[in-house]
């Protein structure tokens, strides 16, 4: 059954330190021309002393203000992240405490679905929300903690940040359509090790990937997910005002546009400024699109993402 969702507010937080491609070229053997032509990225923000919960908290405060609600009106907090501050408690619990929420119904938890995490978190919120209830859904990452800054094949791609959204279950809103899927990553094309039992050297891991494999997967995955939510909502691409894709690589977005014969202008793109912020990328893009008055007026939008797992998914919403 499709869930009726209304978006009440958006928020975002950028990490403190901008790092340009030229800055990176002083750290590893790379250059602006390579990075920009292969990815579309010019700059990214990296944290100095803020952890994931700090970025998530800042984005949450902005979303709460934007929604013009009191934090105590929230019923659920879900954080999508693969770079939590601690193994426990969850980033969501930490944000609940900093917001000082004492609502008797509140519960908070994290999910990890890598770069697809925000879509998965939104689907969970849609399933859990009772009519009239409100959820704070956050994507927050400090990927700089798990990047090998000597590895030019990965360090140029990622950035830190957070995006947040307040969403309510509203009988008068339009139904949201979701599609989520994970396929077996037999070849380990995208991963970051956690704590290993094997040896001290392997205790913590940096992000590693087979870029071209991920690239091919991403194009098929995003195209399939867009088709699936259109089918579920029983509408066509012509009815969609804006597609908010995971901001990983401009060439991936262009390839999806070409494969599906969609005008590139229909895709919201801000990866030039932020790089790939994983679970934060879609809510950061939503917050920026909202700042630019591109949302609202009952527009239909599709959010679509892919990431480690291998996971992918989409959400079609009227906002
Ligand atoms: O959220 C999901 C996260 N992951 C992704 O979205 C990744 C998807 N994949 C990609 O975006 C692309 O595969 C990359 C941007 C990662 C790489 O682009 P590519 O066109 O697939 O390049 P490549 O891996 O085939 O590398 C081409 C060359 C290689 O040199 P040789 O072997 O041709 O001499 C690399 O060593 O470029 C070299 N290279 C670099 N050169 C300068 C790799 N990284 C860099 C770099 N600067 N940063």
Walk me through this protein's architecture.
- The protein is an alpha+beta fold and 319 residues long.
- It folds into two domains: 3-172, Peroxisomal Thiolase, Chain A, domain 1 (3-Layer(aba) Sandwich); 176-318, Thiolase/Chalcone synthase (Peroxisomal Thiolase, Chain A, domain 1), CATH 3.40.47.
- It is 32% helix and 25% strand.
- The chain has helices at 21-25, 32-39, 52-67, 91-99, 117-128, 152-155, 211-233, 250-259, 271-274, 281-291, and strands at 3-14, 17-20, 43-46, 76-80, 107-111, 134-141, 161-169, 175-182, 190-192, 207-209, 242-245, 300-307, 311-318.
- The strands form three sheets. The protein has a nine-stranded mixed β-sheet, with helices on both faces.
- Helix 3 (52-67) packs across helix 4 and helix 7 crosses helix 8.
- The longest helix is centred in the C-terminal third of the chain and has 23 residues, at 211-233.
- The protein is globular.
- 50% of the residues are buried.
- The chain binds oxa(dethia)-CoA.
- Residues 30, 34-35, 38-39, 115, 152-153, 156, 209, 211-212, 214-215, 218, 248-249, 276, 307 line the site of oxa(dethia)-CoA.
Compact overview of the structure:
It is built from ten helices and 13 strands. By secondary structure, the protein is α+β, with helices and mostly antiparallel strands.
Poorly predicted regions are: none
Approximate helicity band = 25-40%
Might you state the CATH topology name of the largest domain?
Peroxisomal Thiolase, Chain A, domain 1
Total DSSP E strands: 13
CATH architecture of the largest domain: 3-Layer(aba) Sandwich
Which structural class should the secondary elements be placed in? Answer: alpha+beta
CATH homology group of the largest domain: Thiolase/Chalcone synthase
Mean pLDDT, to the nearest integer, reads 95
In angstroms, what separates the terminal alpha carbons?
19 Å
CA-based shape: globular
Main sheet overview: 9 strands, mixed
What fraction of residues sit in β-strands?
Answer: 25-35%
What is the CATH level 1 assignment of the largest domain? Answer: Alpha Beta
Helix and strand sequence: EEHHEHEHEHEHEEEEHEHHHEE
CA-based gyration radius:
18 Å
What is the topology, as strand order, of the major beta sheet? 5-4-6-7-1-8-13-12-11
Number of helices: 10
- Domains (count): 2
Bound molecules: oxa(dethia)-CoA
């Amino acid at each position: 059954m499709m869930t009726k969702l209304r978006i009440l507010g958006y928020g975002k937080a950028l990490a403190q330190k901008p790092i340009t491609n030229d800055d990176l070229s002083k750290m590893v053997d790379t250059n602006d021309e390579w990075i920009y032509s292969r990815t579309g990225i010019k700059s990214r923000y990296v944290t100095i002393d803020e952890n994931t919960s700090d970025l998530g908290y800042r984005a949450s405060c902005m979303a709460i203000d934007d929604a013009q609600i009191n934090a105590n009106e929230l019923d659920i907090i879900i954080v999508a992240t693969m770079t939590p501050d601690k193994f426990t408690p969850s980033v969501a619990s930490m944000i609940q405490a900093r917001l000082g929420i004492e609502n008797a119904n509140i519960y908070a938890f994290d999910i990890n679905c890598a770069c697809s995490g925000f879509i998965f978190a939104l689907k969970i919120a849609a399933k859990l929300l009772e009519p009239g209830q409100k959820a704070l859904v956050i994507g927050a990452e400090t990927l700089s903690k798990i990047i090998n800054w000597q590895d030019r094949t990965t360090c140029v791609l990622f950035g830190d940040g957070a995006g947040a959204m307040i969403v309510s279950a509203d009988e008068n809103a339009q139904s949201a359509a979701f599609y989520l899927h994970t396929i077996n990553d037999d070849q380990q094309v995208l991963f970051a090790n956690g704590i290993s039992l094997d040896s001290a050297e392997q205790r913590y891991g940096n992000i590693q990937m087979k870029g071209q494999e991920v690239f091919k997967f991403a194009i098929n995955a995003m195209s399939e997910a867009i088709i699936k939510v259109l089918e579920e909502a029983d509408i066509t691409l012509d009815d969609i005002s804006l597609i908010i894709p995971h901001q990983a690589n401009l060439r991936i977005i262009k390839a999806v546009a070409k494969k599906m014969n969609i005008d590139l202008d229909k895709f919201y793109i801000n990866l030039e400024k932020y790089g790939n912020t994983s679970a934060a990328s879609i809510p950061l893009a939503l917050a920026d699109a909202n700042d630019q008055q591109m949302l609202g007026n009952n527009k239909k939008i599709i959010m679509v993402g892919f990431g480690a797992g291998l996971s992918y998914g989409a959400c079609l919403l009227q906002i």
